[in-house]
Amino acid sequence: MDRLRGQATQVQSSLGTLLVNLENHQHTTATNDELASLTAANQAMRDQINQALKTLDIINNILPNNTATALIKDLAGVKSQLTHQRQAISQLRQLMAAGKTAQARRSINQLNQAANSLTNQLDEAATTFTSNVSPSLDDLTDLISRHLSDNDTAISSLRSLTPQLQAVQDAGGSIAAISKGQVSRINQRLDNVSGTLRDLNEKAAFLNKKNLKQLVKLLGRSPQLANLLASPTQLKTTEQYHLKLFGYAAAPFYTVLSMWIGALLLTVILAWRYVLESKTRLHPNLIQTYVGKLTLFLGISLTQTTVTMISELLILGIRPQNVLAFLAIAYTTTLVFTIMTFSLVFLIGNAGKVIAVLLMIIQIFGTGGLYPLETIPHGLAQFAPFLPFTYAISGFREALGGTDLSVFSQDIIRLLGFAAIFIALACLKRLVGGPVNWLEKGMKRSQL
Fold it and tell me: Residues in domain ABC-2 type transporter transmembrane (predicted)?
């Protein structure tokens, strides 16, 4: 418990440091380190809780009782709190990256309150363990000793119990992580179990057919012991997000990637400027050229997206939790990607296609689509808040697994922000038109 409290204190300390940096307007590498420390502490606490739950399942299988079940429920509540804390930390990271100071401050305060609540839950779990579960371990040792005294010959045949009893010994390490004050008592009980194991190994040499029959009778009189031998551990899976298949988890990334590639191919297939005959009187200006051609590109892109959505929903059988949100993020994404790629080509010609390809490569590995941002190089992960794939993939995941409107709306707004930025960049066409035309003519003369 002291170890868990120490990690909870580390979380609160990191939150305090983040709040100080936020008040002083210091968005530095130290801030990113504190966010990484928060994520690591949260994961460490989750790992300890998971190990403790496995241990309690073993104890509850051997000696079922309501107190062990109550402790399991307490730890499950702590685990749920840690899951919400992880989501809040992820949202805080996005707020800090976007420079939303007020929202980040509120998020830090909410995390502090949640950390205090988590500490209280840990105290309740420690009290339950000390007063109720710990005596159950004493009962387990007494049960083994009683069987040894009642029938020496029968117990000598229990050599097959060695792995299960060893598992109980190993489980003591996990219990020690929950409550440091119980370490000495648990170690003493584990020493008793180890002595029992040595006795069993010594007497196993006298195992014979007669003893096997006695063992069968013993197992018939003790269903709990028979169940332990048949199934020493039980795995319980709880679905946190509605992503039952691997395809559901991979669909956001590959859908977003296909939309970017579709928009990029349009710039290769279609001309981005009007090709007019010399005798025509029509001479569209830059605004007319941009709006007219962009409208054509958008029409084709939206058609491509419609076909993609029909295929995923009807043919592939993807069932998002919120279909309207799924369609909204899809059409918003293709709108933004088309504006970005067309604006690049409109502004700097063929060089814009090269930049679009480079952006695609960076976004494949640097936006958390295939691998979590924590597992990729830190230098590459730093670009994630500035790339549209990050928010498009996040929006699709929200629509598939269960929509959090606050996160989903922020993803939509940030995607539209990318579109606004690239529309503004297209206005620089008049300034860079001369050098771009010279470059285009040089490429044409080179016949590359």
Answer: 71-427
Torsion, Cα of 225, 226, 232, 236 (10° steps) = -110
Question: Which residue, 259, 270, 341, 343, is CA-closest to 304?
Answer: 259
Alpha-carbon gap, residue 13 to 18, rounded angstroms: 9
Residue 90 CA to residue 86 CA, distance in Å, equals: 6
- Is the separation of the CB atoms in 281 and 212 below 8 Å? no
Output the CA torsion 218→222→227→229 (10° steps): -30
Mean pLDDT, range 385-411, rounded to an integer:
89
- Cβ partners under 8 Å of residue 296, min gap 6: 270
**pTM of the entire predicted model:** 0.47
Confidence of residue 388 (pLDDT cuts 50, 70, 90): very high
Are the beta carbons of 83 and 240 closer than 8 angstroms?
yes
Highest mean pLDDT among 16-20, 41-45, 179-183: 41-45
Contact assessment for residue 388 and residue 415, using Cβ atoms and an 8 Å cutoff:
yes
Rounded mean pLDDT, 7-22: 67
For position 93, what pLDDT does the model report?
72
Rounded to whole angstroms, the Cα distance separating 56 from 129 reads 10
Q: What is the chain's mean pLDDT, rounded?
A: 75
Q: State mean pLDDT over 2-8.
A: 65
Please count the helices (runs of H) and the strands (runs of E) in the chain: 18, 0
Supply the Cα-derived Rg of the chain in whole angstroms.
32
For 222-240, how does the pLDDT look when each residue is reduced to its tens digit (9 = 90+)?
Answer: 676 666 666 677 777 776 6
The set of residues, in sequence order, having a beta carbon less than 8 Å from that of 302 and lying 6+ positions away, is 331, 334, 335
Give the span between the Cα atoms of 57 and 382, in whole angstroms.
41
Q: Is 171 exposed, middle or buried (0-12, 13-18, 19+ CB in 10 A)?
A: buried
